[in-house]
């Protein structure tokens, strides 16, 4: 494994054995994945896709059935139990439901891993104070988890996960239990941790919004398989797999309502979605792109800034013509993805 990779997963398979030991559930199927040092990699998929199983194999919480996982240059299958415990100190983890001890204060929750590891009181105080400042919880040291908001509880979870100065942080649905505002602040904190401390972050989520906001790379898994992966701006502007497209369109509430008339009897319009991306410093002319559709009606338009790109999504309806108009790729575009969505009867 080259040293710019923090994680390398090769031919990983994971089976769970059911009640009946003859029944095997193939939860992870021949997974290959490299995660670069200092990157934020998002793993997305529907419920039951295998996200948590995959994340948990990275710190040995879940065993693998075959294949190999290299983490920080260690082959996990070759480690003794003691070596695995040692490696885990270099891999922090945070959870959807925070996993805090309710009978301990914020200070004690964060300090616990160091106490267990037998550090001196001075060292513990120094490290806990540093982390409470990092996550912005200085004023809550003596509070109990029940006295905190969800976002504050997750800050405690993050501080505790960073207590051993890890090189990797694993996040299992870290913002799924939070309201939109707390989600924003936690995502910003994770981004700050990545940028200032250089920690590699692997996060799993079922929300494309989370991926869009802070990830560099995205991996889409379904039924235990990687079905798509790439840089975030690329996957958002040119999703190849139907499941990725569905996950993305869930982001746009009115996308489906705009198409709700597609089942009508009398077809007069075609609906077309156009996804495109161009580098921020490239000028792009939407008029030129839509020139083949002089009578098009714009049903939806959205432009997001993702990494160094503008990623746009258009939904248009155009009158049915004898021959389908052709959209031509413009030089300034980094990607262009066009999809027919059937017919629209009337446009309000
Ligand atoms: N300990 C277990 N024993 C048996 N089957 C399991 C076990 N853990 C998970 N599974 C099965 O493996 C599959 C993947 O589960 P996993 O928890 O990794 O999915 P997930 O993508 O994290 O889902 P969610 O989004 O709901 O958290 C599921 O079908 C699940 O039922
Ligand atoms: Mg899960």
From TrEMBL:
PROSITE patterns: ABC_TRANSPORTER_1, ABC_TRANSPORTER_2. Signal peptide: none annotated. GO terms for molecular function: ATP binding; ATP hydrolysis activity. It is found in: Cell inner membrane. GO terms for biological process: amino acid transport. The keyword ATP-binding applies. It is a peripheral membrane protein. Residues 7-248 form the ABC transporter domain. Keywords: Amino-acid transport, ATP-binding, Cell membrane, Membrane, Nucleotide-binding, Translocase, Transport. One of its GO terms (cellular component) is plasma membrane. It comes from the Bacteria. The keyword Iron does not apply. InterPro entries: AAA+_ATPase, ABC_transporter-like_ATP-bd, ABC_transporter-like_CS, MetN_ABC, MetN_ABC_transporter-like, P-loop_NTPase. Belongs to the ABC transporter superfamily. Part of the ABC transporter FtsEX involved in cellular division. Important for assembly or stability of the septal ring. This is Cell division ATP-binding protein FtsE. It comes from Acinetobacter boissieri.
